[in-house]
Amino acid sequence: MDISTLQKALLNPEIYPDHPEDIKWVETHISIVFLTGNYAYKIKKPVNFGFLDFTSLEKRKFFCEQEIILNRRLARDLYLDVIPIAEDRGKISIHGVGKIIEYAVKMRQIPEDLLMNRLLEKNRVTPGMMEAISEKLVQFYASAETSHYIESFAKPERVKQDTDENFVQTKRYIDITIPKDVYEYVLERTEQFFRERKDLFYRRIASHYIRDCHGDLRLEHIFWGKELSIIDCIEFNERFRYTDVAADIAFLAMDIDYHDRPELNEPLIRTYIQRSGDEGLLKVLDFYRCYRAYIRGKVDSFHLDDPNIPEERKRRVLNRARKYFDLAYQYARRF
To answer: Vertex 289, ends 185 and 51: CA angle to 5°?
Structure first.
């Protein structure tokens, strides 16, 4: 069954066990989420973008299971189960009988106004909340999986493959989203960091700070419910998740800077270092903040090539990409 036909079927309240009154849906480039009021059902699109491959039913089932397992580490009560979607004589049902045609991740639906990006817009984020996030992350990283294989992803030559890829892929956006002098400066400073501070990467590895992390630690993925939860980790690619804990924290710190609230990073970083004892984090934090900001600028630049995006939205994307690249430049000046 094609994705558009399945989408229409999943908007029918009768196929759900609790028969919700109304169903809303949201879509990304890799998934569609159906919101019933009490629950959210996420199905993965049958797409292959190189960094992820959901093209077979077996792969989609596997990555749904991975999404549950990995996200329960930081959002224990929100990720419920992997639910089969079945078809019997043309009738679609959730958790029903018949041939399984798709799988969905079932979650508790959460109020979006309690996500941290929304709270920040309302000026409701406090230093105490940042300290609580740090304490949760210290516990998470201390228990997160590590191994020689996981640590190999943080060797300088491996990390340099990622930064090299960024510069190659953004070259065509010079003087569109990134000024030429900014491109050349960030490139030069990144190369210099690898030449002169290679020892830092190996020290981080020797100290076992390379873990199976979150991989997409942003404001919009932090939920302030009865219990602080962090959702939507990267399940589809080890390369994005096996990293230095500093790179994970740097993503959140960069996102806070992007939203023009740098003062909130002080309690975040201070508390993390106090609770973890990881004073070496400061020596690589700006390097990884630069890396994270550059990736966000790159991804937004890619959107400019999408013919399906309206021009008005492209103008917003253009400004956003420029702001990310400017942040990358500011960080590069500091490391």
So the answer is: 95
Tokens (6 digits) for 229: 């939860």
**Per-chain mean pLDDT for the chain:** 95
Q: Is the pLDDT of residue 275 over 80?
A: yes
Q: Kindly state whether residues 313 and 169 are assigned to the same domain.
A: yes
Domain that holds residue 38: 3-109
Task: Give CA–CA dist 106/94, Å, rounded.
Answer: 11
Q: Do 120 and 91 share a domain, yes or no?
A: no
Question: Is the per-residue pLDDT at 309 higher than 90?
Answer: no
Residue type, 301: S
Residue type, 121: E
Phi then psi dihedrals of residue 244, to 5 deg: -65, 140
Return the structure tokens found at 122: 């309302």
User: Which residue shows structure tokens 């990310």?
Assistant: 324
Q: What single DSSP character describes residue 222?
A: E
CA distances for 116 relative to 26, 110, 150, 272, angstroms: 19, 12, 29, 18
Q: How many domains does the chain have?
A: 2
Instruction: Identify the CATH number of the domain in which residue 237 sits.
Output: 3.90.1200
Find the mean pLDDT for residues 238-267.
97
Report d(CA 326, CA 335) in Å as an integer: 15
- Give me the pLDDT at residue 1, please: 65
